[in-house]
């Protein structure tokens, strides 16, 4: 999975698809997020649950343990290893959802530059990505070591032609279970390993190469190039 995504609708639009009766404590605001070209190290909207309350915070995309100062903070974690490796052990219990509208991948099609593709749900509903991280809990203020990673799995079906990895995307029902602090870690691992949405739930199309510049923002970045919808 490449390191770009979009969060342009409002947090309440993302929360609505979860159909959770829980109270929402939001540090994100109610206006559209308008992040069409979200990139690593940026503050992105993240949902997590404390007891019966859903929280929405802006958290840095990327995390590493305090001792791993010899490497850049990863933005993604492989589902095959995330539950048991020492690197992510401190945050494996801290489950979250990164709600996005779409993400981007770059494909080598033989030209001088790789071609970017936008990937979204076919029904254009929010994409609920399984994530883990270190984020504000118990009312504390955000900290310098806060961050999150998106869990990724092998691609399947036609999507493998776009990239060999993709985010673990959950249905609203499974996202609620994933977020619930009462869900055992063993069950959470099974959700991430085996119950992510299949490739058939998604569509993808070519977009302008302007998405490659992180300074570019705006709805024009998510418009398909003519006749490229797959």
From TrEMBL:
- Name the enzyme's class: hydrolase
Task: Give the superkingdom in one word.
Answer: Bacteria
Give the EC number(s) listed in the UniProt record.
3.4.-.-
Write the record's keywords in alphabetical order, separated by commas.
Hydrolase, Protease
The answer, when asked if Hydrolase is one of the entry's keywords, is yes
Asked whether the UniProt record includes Transcription among its keywords, one would answer no
Similarity field? Belongs to the SOS response-associated peptidase family.
PANTHER family (alphabetical): ABASIC SITE PROCESSING PROTEIN HMCES (PTHR13604:SF0), DC12-RELATED (PTHR13604)
Q: Please state what the protein is called.
A: Abasic site processing protein
Q: What is the lineage of its organism?
A: Bacteria, Pseudomonadati, Pseudomonadota, Gammaproteobacteria, Pseudomonadales
């Amino acid at each position: 999975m490449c390191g770009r995504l979009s969060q342009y609708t409002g947090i309440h639009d993302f929360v609505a698809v979860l159909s959770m009766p829980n109270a929402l404590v939001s540090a994100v605001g109610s206006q559209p997020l308008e992040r069409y070209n979200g990139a690593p190290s940026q503050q992105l909207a993240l949902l997590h649950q404390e007891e019966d309350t859903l929280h929405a915070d802006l958290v840095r995309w990327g995390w590493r343990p305090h001792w791993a100062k010899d490497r850049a903070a990863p933005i993604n974690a492989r589902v095959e290893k995330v539950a048991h490796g020492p690197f992510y052990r401190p945050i494996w219990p801290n489950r979250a959802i990164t709600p996005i509208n779409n993400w981007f991948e770059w494909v080598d099609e033989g030209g001088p530059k790789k071609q970017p593709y936008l990937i979204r749900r076919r029904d254009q509903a929010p994409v609920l990505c399984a994530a883990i991280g270190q984020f504000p809990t118990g009312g504390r203020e955000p900290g310098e070591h806060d961050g999150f990673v998106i869990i990724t799995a092998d691609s399947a079906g036609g999507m493998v032609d776009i990239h060999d990895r993709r985010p673990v995307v959950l249905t609203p029902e499974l996202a609620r279970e994933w977020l619930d602090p009462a869900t055992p870690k063993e069950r959470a691992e099974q959700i991430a390993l085996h119950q992510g949405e299949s490739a058939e739930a998604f569509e993808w199309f070519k977009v302008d190469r302007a998405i490659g510049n992180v300074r570019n923002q705006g709805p024009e970045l998510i418009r398909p190039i003519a006749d490229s919808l797959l």
